[in-house]
Specification:
183 residues; mainly alpha; 61% helix; Ead/Ea22-like family protein; coiled coil
Length: 183
């Protein structure tokens, strides 16, 4: 997965009646409020605005990288938790089945299999969306590799239409992954 903003746009806005600027980095948007990260900057007395903005941009990029790393770690943990819940449900169902088989007359002590089923079917839509995006980015990488190969190494020849069609198929697959149509 790429750790870079695909279409970075840095927006700088001088605040009225203030000696400060608002800075935002977006992913292709020119709307200040779509900023992935925003900061307020006041140039120093030497009016070294460029250096200040460069520092803010560097800080913002570092913060974005930290947030992405945290997000990736949380998603990986969620996947592991879902996997362990399924393992636990499987083991518990064996134990519950053996226990329930020892009860000769129903007296209310039967173990609840519905609880096990519910634990096994935990829904994690944010994790599912994140994993779909990771898969789609993998397909995007394959598409980009095909395009780079055609543009940089192959040049015009009889294989180019097939490679271009392959890249178009990758775009379709990535869109379907992002929409949740396929997994």
């Amino acid at each position: 997965m790429s750790n870079k903003i695909e279409n970075p746009v840095v927006l700088i806005h001088k605040r009225e009646n203030h000696d400060s600027y608002a800075v935002a980095i977006t992913n292709g948007s020119h709307d200040f409020y779509d900023g992935l990260l925003m900061a307020s900057v006041s140039p120093d007395k030497a009016d070294n605005s460029f250096a200040v903005f460069a520092m803010v941009g560097y800080y913002m990029a570092a913060e974005i990288e930290k947030l992405r790393a945290q997000r990736d770690a949380l998603a990986a943990e969620n996947v592991a938790l879902r996997s362990k819940a399924a393992e636990l449900a499987h083991e518990a169902s064996k134990i519950y089945s053996a226990y329930n088989a020892t009860i000769t007359e129903p007296d209310g002590d039967f173990m609840d299999m519905q609880t096990l089923h519910e634990m096994q079917c935990i829904e994690t839509p944010a994790t599912d969306a994140f994993l779909a995006e990771v898969r789609a980015q993998g397909v995007d990488m394959a598409r980009n590799a095909m395009i780079d190969f055609v543009d940089g190494e192959v040049g015009p020849n009889k294989n180019v239409p097939g490679l271009i069609r392959g890249a178009e198929i990758c775009v379709s697959i990535a869109e379907q992954l992002r929409k949740g149509v396929i997994q």
